[in-house]
Specification:
heterotrimer, A mainly alpha (226), B mainly alpha (227), C mainly alpha (53), A: 226 residues, 8 helices, 0% strand, B: mainly alpha, globular
Chain lengths: 226, 227, 53
């Protein structure tokens, strides 16, 4: 089987399991809604201030809700030694990792696409005119979160303090991607024009995704197997 | 032999630092705009360079471990990371105190301080991961991968935060005043840097010895349980 | 200017304090490791000289 076929098989397995149980997506979505509500207490929704922080708010929600999905990603395989079975299967570590990335990516995109309209409603924002570009930012930013999060999920899966270690390790790593996504989202949601300065953030996001995808695919075998 | 190196380096480092203190306080005049607080630069900049270099050195050692599978590489990486962590803390706190005088605020999200804070957080993550794993080989393997990721991330973080903060102009803590320093004032920085590097080396060597002791303990314990 | 000197003093103090605290923590760890090493060596000796059952 080719690399992609193996990866898609694993992604399919994860997605099928998730569609049947719906445990992770439900938890993640509820968490996202709770955070949106909590932030509404901190900031006065509908004011001009919110327009300035809209991007930041959105991506904080995505990052926090995403951690739930990413944590479960490898943790779900611990039961009945499924992880050992997967590692000893003909699929290489990179294929296993990429498959899980794809599954997590789709789940996280679902959560984001559902919470974005809720954000618009709660914070009285207008639907962005250039929603296509905003969707592109979401695609790029989410891939960055997924790749780093899935690799560190693999790294911390066998630790006692798994739930504690994953956020501690992942969030500092994600800062460049979150920066770019926040900056671009704020500009696009406010309906302003993208200056030439802002295009550097697209390059940063794309570069971040490429660099860390390659690095992760190269090192994941060492993390999983040794 | 190693003990002699450690002793020699400590003494040399102590001498240079003492001589520098003399230079800093008696020979170098107060800086025009900043006054006496300017002298903090003599610790702030060398610590910053040392702590930043730590990331890259640790990454090389981690790559070395992954290639050679020799636990000594892991000890070096861990020791360097720990010592660099101490120096990053010094950089952050001295930078904050300097900012308090110049800007009147303890903290500002200036790009250098922010980037260093992220470096500090990455170091904390590495040290936490080391504590969380008991098995030495697994610990070495996972920490090596984390070290490589952290180093690549540091480069990206540094550049991206610089762009972010220059887009939103805020207070920029510029150590250099007026685009350069008088020649007499610059020399103590480099002497202090030499002294701090020697001090860092001494600390790393001591830590490496402790890691070797820990490995010996692990081996003996395994041997004891074999009976 | 007076305030400048006070803060400069604090700055230097903090820098040295961090180094000293770190050195002390290293020294404490050294002591703990030596004790552990001695304990394990004794355990190995005891097990080696135990009469074979």
């Amino acid at each position: 089987m080719s690399f992609l076929q193996q990866a898609l098989a694993i992604a399919g397995k994860d997605l099928r399991s998730e569609i049947r149980s719906k445990e992770t997506v439900n938890a993640s979505l509820s968490f996202a809604l709770v955070i949106l509500m909590l932030f509404s207490f901190a900031f006065d929704p509908g004011s001009d201030q919110v327009r300035e922080i809209s991007g930041g708010l959105l991506w904080l929600v995505y990052a926090f809700a995403g951690t739930l999905i990413l944590n479960r990603s490898f943790a779900r395989e611990l039961v009945n030694d499924c992880l050992d079975a997967l590692i000893s299967s003909p699929a290489s570590g990179a294929q296993l990792f990429f498959g899980k990335c794809l599954a997590n990516y789709l789940l996280l995109m679902v959560v984001e696409c559902v919470s974005f309209p809720v954000f618009i409603i709660f914070y009285n924002a207008r639907w962005p005119a250039r929603w296509g570009l905003l969707f592109l930012v979401m695609l790029l930013g989410t891939w960055g979160i997924t790749v780093i999060g899935t690799l560190f999920s693999a790294m911390t899966v066998n630790l006692r303090l798994r739930e504690l270690m994953l956020p501690t390790l992942v969030y500092p790593m994600l800062i460049p991607a979150l920066l770019g996504a926040i900056r671009l989202s704020t500009v696009l949601i406010a309906g302003e024009a993208l200056e030439t300065d802002d295009q550097i953030w697209f390059k940063l996001l794309a570069g971040f995704d490429v660099i860390f995808t390659v690095l992760s695919l190269a090192l994941v075998e060492i993390v999983l197997v040794g | 032999m190693r003990l002699k190196i450690i002793l020699a380096l400590s003494v040399l480092s102590g001498l240079i630092l003492s001589w520098n203190l003399h230079t800093m306080f008696l020979k170098v005049p107060d800086e025009l705009n900043q006054g006496a607080i300017f002298r903090i630069i003599y610790f702030h900049v060398p610590s910053a360079i040392t702590s930043f270099a730590g990331f890259f050195l640790a990454m090389f050692c981690s790559v070395g471990y992954l290639i050679k599978k020799d636990l000594r590489f892991d000890s070096v990486a861990a020791s360097i990371t720990e010592v660099s962590f101490a120096f990053t803390t010094i950089t952050l706190i001295t930078g904050s105190i300097w900012g308090r005088i110049i800007w009147g605020i303890w903290w500002t999200w200036d790009y250098r301080l922010t980037s260093f804070f992220i470096c500090w957080l990455l170091y904390v993550g590495y040290l936490m991961l080391r504590r969380a794993i008991d098995d030495p080989t697994t610990r070495a393997r996972l920490c090596a991968v984390l070290s490589i990721f952290a180093c690549v991330d540091v480069v990206i973080v540094w550049k991206s935060i610089e762009w972010f903060r220059t887009q939103h102009p805020g207070p920029v803590l510029s150590i250099r005043s007026g685009g350069g320093m008088a020649p007499g004032m610059e020399a103590p920085i480099w002497w202090n840097f030499l002294a701090l590097v020697m001090l860092a080396t001494v600390l790393v060597l001591i830590r490496m010895r402790q890691e070797a002791m820990q490995r010996e303990i692990d081996t003996m314990r395994r041997y004891a349980h074999a009976f | 200017m007076d305030q400048n000197y006070t803060f400069m003093f604090y700055g230097f103090l903090v820098a040295w304090l961090v180094v000293i605290i770190y050195v002390i923590s290293i020294a404490l760890r050294e002591r703990k490791l030596r004790a552990e090493l001695d304990r394990v060596k004794r355990m190995v000796d005891d097990r080696e000289h135990e009469p074979k059952r």
